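Person: Please work through this fold.
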Amino acid sequence: MLGHGARWRALQVFEQAIEQITGTQRKVLQNLAPLLRHDGLLFAGHSESFLHSADVFRLRGSTVYEPAGPARQLAADKPESGRV
């Protein structure tokens, strides 16, 4: 059994790992959003959650997201070629 100090340290390490994963995921979403058409959708797995990036993608269905806010405008402003 871990002592109080060891449990606290383990929790800190876990929180730091989650922050790194979330930050990386956010960067990927920010880079992906402008590549979609203005009416483009992102289909994600059931275990994914983009709530930390609601300004980039907003939930449209249980696993379907659409560009939100500035990301949606960037997608609308780009020419059709090169977008998915």
The first helix runs from residue 4 to 32. The radius of gyration is 17 Å. The longest strand covers residues 64-67.
